[in-house]
Amino acid sequence: MIHPFLQSTLRELQVFLQSRRFWGTFAAIVLLFAVTGPYGTMESMAFGERLAYWLTLHAVAWAIAILCAVMAERLLREVIVSMFARMMTGSLIAALPIGFAISLVDYIFTGETTTLESGLQRALFAVPLCALFCLLTYMAMSRKIAEAAVPEETSPGTSILDRLKPENRARCCASPSRITIPRW
Questions:
Q1: Residue 120: pLDDT over 80
Q2: Which residues, in sequence order, are CB contacts of 150 under 8 Å at separation 6+?
Q3: Contact 13/70 with Cβ under 8 angstroms?
Q4: Is the pTM value of this prediction over 0.85?
Q5: Does residue 113 come out as left (phi exceeding 0), alpha (psi in the -120 to 50 range) or beta?
Q6: What are the tens digits of pLDDT across the range 124-139?
Q7: If you write DSSP's letter for every residue of 98-134 in order, what string do you get?
Q8: Which terminus of the chain has a lower count of CB atoms within 10 Å, N or C?
């Protein structure tokens, strides 16, 4: 059995993965960065390389930010009342690993070596971006995240088959009398 913390966290992560709005926003931001070429990427990279760079960087950074925000939202529920404050806490904490992830992506694409100081500088630079990311995510998806965070009510005696929607049951499962469970 999966721990309730993991079940809730996985449900909340699935909200992001199944959201068209989330993926549309992600694609628009990556495209915006690839076209405009900020931070010197316009001068140093061709469009294809720039697109790959920004896609990789955003995929890694967004994954870290979402994971940290969702975990903080779940772990701090008893301590911090506001869901926005919990998510913001997680997003700001995510700035440190994001700073070093940016260093890794830079090393892969440019060969620029990373020091502890440069990783920390990138993390500091990521703090306001993480806060902005959290604000946008909260405005776009807070209702869906809150719905996913509420565990489904089931009674202890309810079987797994009873929890499934009838259309999701296999033919052999349609009739409980056909199921044999070995007794050890």
A1: yes
A2: none
A3: yes
A4: no
A5: beta
A6: 999 998 998 888 878 8
A7: HHHHHHHHHHHHH-----HHHHHHHHHHHHHHHHHHH
A8: C
